[in-house]
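B., you asked whether I could sanity-check this one before it goes into the benchmark set. Here's the sequence:
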Amino acid sequence: MTNTSFLDKIASVLIENYSDNLSNTIVVLPNKRAKIFLIEALKNQVTTNILSPEIISIEDFVQNIAGIRTIEPIELLFEFYEVYLSITDKANQQTFELFANWAKTLLQDFNEIDRYLLEPSHVLSYLKDIEDIKKWGIEVENKTTLLEKYIDFWKLLPNYYQSLYAHLLNKGIGYQGLIYREAVNNLNHFSNSVQDKQFVFAGFNALNAAEEKIIQHLIASDQAKIYWDVDQTFLNDPYHDAGLFVRRFKESWKHYKQHPFEWIVNDFSQTKNIQVIGTPKTIGQAKIAGSIIEKIINENPEGKLDKVAVVLGEENLLVPLLYSLPSSVGALNITMGYSSKNNPAQILIAKLFKMHTNAFSRNAKSYVLYYKDVLDVLTHPLVEPYAKTSALVHTINQNNYTFITHHKLMELNANPSELFLLLFQKWENGSIPVLETISKLLQTIKNNLSNDNEEEKITKSFVFAIFKVINKLINYYSKHEHIDKIETLYAIYKQVIDLAEVSFEGEPLNGLQIMGVLESRVLDFDTVIVTSMNEGKFPAGKSQNSFIPYDVKRELGLPTFKEKDAIYTYHFYHLLQRAKNIYLIYNTESEGLDAGEKSRFITQLEVERQKNHTLIHEIYNAVLPETAYQPMVIPKSESVMVRLKEIAEKGFSPSALTSYIRNPIQFYFQKILRISEVEEVEENIALNTLGTIIHETLKVLYEPFISKFISESDILNCFKQIDAEVLKQFKLVYKEGEIKKGRNLLAFEVAKRNVSNFLKVELESIKSGDAIKIIALEQTFGRTLNHPNLPFPILIKGNVDRIEERSGIIRIIDYKTGKVEKASVTLKSWKGLTEDIKSDKIIQVLAYAFMYEKEAKGKPIEAGIISFKNLKAGFLPFNFKEEKDTNSIINEEILSNYIEQMVLLLSEILDENIPFKEKII
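And here's what the prediction gave me:
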């Protein structure tokens, strides 16, 4: 098999046939990237210094002929809008957003019409006639205003085209199609002005009508030659899409009636090792590509990787691939840019747009900001270290600010930094001031970043990419001032931002080559790894983004999805043409976001397998570990034991003991390491907050009756205070949180109803003759537990919601806002009490009984729960059920058994040989 690449052959032709006139030779290639590789190929074939030929891409070449500057899609859209406003009655003019929806598609159609040199008035009136035919059946009197406008739109198309064409030509700017049409119009003048030049066209496949005309004209006037890169396998097969265009040119071009067709090669049928690998998901593909490269390096440690290419069928695979490459790769050349969608500066600007547009639409006058939007901006990595707002973030979280007016935000941050002021400057004076604010903001961020830190240098390049985009938008907006809505600005920003890629630095001729499909044109590699070989990715699949129907396109000779597929087919087979080792990786998942069937190209390779091709098909699946998760085990170190002794002295609360039973690791994090939950804004009242509010309300209502017997009039008096007291507690506990609407208003009403229902039950008890005396409310009690099996005395300490004396019996009550059934406080056997979290309520209420026993002075004690979601059941006392006997009075025997169980639990907690072991639920 020959190892000569296509560009090597072109270099040989240039040296052999054009060596005495190289400086007057212009080589035209499909893209700019191939230029470096052609210069390298020339360098390798000459021994003396020579003047290089001019090497240019086809687009630049056509632009030179036309003498017109190309403009970006957004600038074109702005120019078209100017034209649209100038030729449309004021009454019928659309906003820029509505206009942009159809204008983008129409501009694509104008582009195609011009590139294929069609008569625009013919094509556009054809579209109008089609729409007329569709509406034939509708009587004149039934034609609505909407329908009339719809038909008028099609009538206006020729006018739109001609006005835009003239407008752009007058400014010396244009879209690609206009430039191509003007180049063809200017062709005779151009070829007369370059009589001394020679043109070499190399490596083309699909040409539009304008390109065909230009190339054929120069060949006919003996000023140019064209060299194709086509394999006989594709050219001689009338059905093979890889040769579709070249077959057409070979048959239809006049030049080939008398001259030979250059070049037809026979490289594809040579020996090739093709490995087709299927694996689930995108990351799997990146990992496999990385392991293939590692294998190549291991097999030939001294070898270079510059003849190895990774072609990404999908660009979002780039970052996962970079993480999957082995460290031994060394030199690397990436021809694709890093997408701006993940650019940290872009993410910050997107968050700013969201925050300000929401505030503006919510209430333009008071400018109300949503706390999540504010915190998203303040905690962004480009803002947080420099804005000096940690106190503000803490205030917002602590006080449950959900919606904050702009004025209040400025009040809360009394000494704002320059960065803070730029972030929160109101966006109310139009688009240009907004863009200038963002521009200043990006400059401030840039000044905060250091050049000494490698990471910060990279961040600077990201910030600079967005800065350029913002300045470009300022430039556009200063020329087109009538487009001035913030929403429109954001829509335009999102479109422009896709172009703001950050380029990777690399040595183009050295090391592993990573590229997209289009960048691989004209280049040849020995080893090719292609990812995302799925339908809809490679090939890209159908996309009908045009007003021109398929059958009209066929009739007029415009490209359809058939031609677009043929372009992909050529790129794919060209990658394989001279390669020896080929790896084709696809996603085996046929459903889901990044999924699709296996590419038809793989099936085609299998069905039309060449004699010298070795084709292996493998499926790789991730190796799943036998255990999905290994529970954490933390041994008790000396410092842990010191901390446990400290807790024992200060007091073990019943909730600490139950948290150990629930999960020893949870106990370790909360009590030993003292890791508390992150403070966050509670947008909707959490259940524990609601519980606190109800507890505190009952405490305030009952406080005047401590050490007194409660009368009916006392309870009736409490009813009057419910609304005011619940509101007061809400303000104290929930601070600035919103309680006048939504779920929080419901929670507020639930709290009032719970307190009211509790008081009703209490009233009924008093009416039925119960004498209730309040002893304590929300009071902390403690009692030291001494036991020979414990290493040292332990204080059991906790907060009791309510202790009362009712008809001679001491009743210890724990309020629960959740639902508790009688079974939760019923015990049948002491065995295993501390092993099951279902016994947590029993452990808790008995702990209260143990703590209060001495204070009771021999009076009988009951301990239990009042559940607000089960108030009908009333007080649910702990009861020990032995066969048919039930006992709810906590006597010495019950307490003694309980202490034995607690000692077992505490011994385990304090045993340094028993580690904290995570419970997997």
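One thing to flag: The mean pLDDT is 89. Otherwise nothing jumped out at me.
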